[in-house]
Write a structure and sequence with these properties.
The chain is of the alpha+beta class. It folds into two domains: 31 residues, no CATH class; 115 residues, Ribonuclease H-like superfamily/Ribonuclease H (Nucleotidyltransferase, domain 5, 2-Layer Sandwich). Helices cover 34% and strands 16% of the residues. It has four helices and four strands, in the order ααβββαβα. A four-stranded mixed β-sheet has the order 3-2-1-4, covered by helices on one side. Strand 2 and strand 3 form a beta hairpin. Helix 3 crosses helix 4. The longest helix is centred in the middle third of the chain and has 25 residues.
């Protein structure tokens, strides 16, 4: 999980790699060799009741060439990550609120899928899954179903997060 971004970014230069790109890949390999004894550990904590928790965040306009933002999420269960993702968003956003709202939508889709999987594995979740976000405007937009003039440009498909039954606590 810790090298996901580095590998993804380096992979863009596979066909046209130059010395700096090779140096970055060598650093990644050196890091992997040095951290081979590290692992993700899972341990049930009495206070967590083994509840799934999700975190999402976005980096607004990280790609200076195409003006796209990068977003990511991680789902945590029993003290360790069980699913995560980081990618460049497919659309160009016009505000940090919009980019954070989009990543919250993506995370909510992953939460719903994971809750179904955990249910099938007889590890059903009781109560809502908490989705943590650090953007107050995006949180207010999720919580408030009123149509806002300043956010009407946000694609309607991202409004589905409001319908997610498993996201009662945001």
């Amino acid at each position: 999980m810790d090298i996901t971004y580095s590998v993804s970014h380096s992979a863009k230069f596979c066909e046209t790699s130059k010395a700096p790109h090779v140096a970055v890949v060598k650093c990644i390999m050196k890091y992997l060799k040095g951290s081979s004894g590290l692992c993700i550990t899972y341990h049930a904590q009495p206070s967590s009741n083994n509840q799934l928790t999700a975190y999402c965040d976005a980096d607004y306009v990280v790609g200076m060439d195409d003006r796209k933002s990068r977003s990511g999420y991680v789902l945590v269960l029993d003290g360790g990550p069980i699913a995560w993702g980081s990618r460049k968003q497919t659309c160009t956003t016009t505000s940090t609120t919009e980019v954070e709202y989009i990543v919250a939508h993506l995370a909510s889709q992953k939460i719903i899928w994971m809750r179904h999987l955990l249910h099938d594995l007889k590890y059903a979740q009781i109560g809502p899954t908490v989705l943590c976000s650090d953007n107050q405007a995006a949180i207010r937009l999720v919580r408030n179903p009123d149509f806002h003039r300043r956010t009407k440009h946000v694609d309607i498909k991202y409004q589905k997060i409001r319908e997610a039954e498993s996201l009662e606590s945001f």
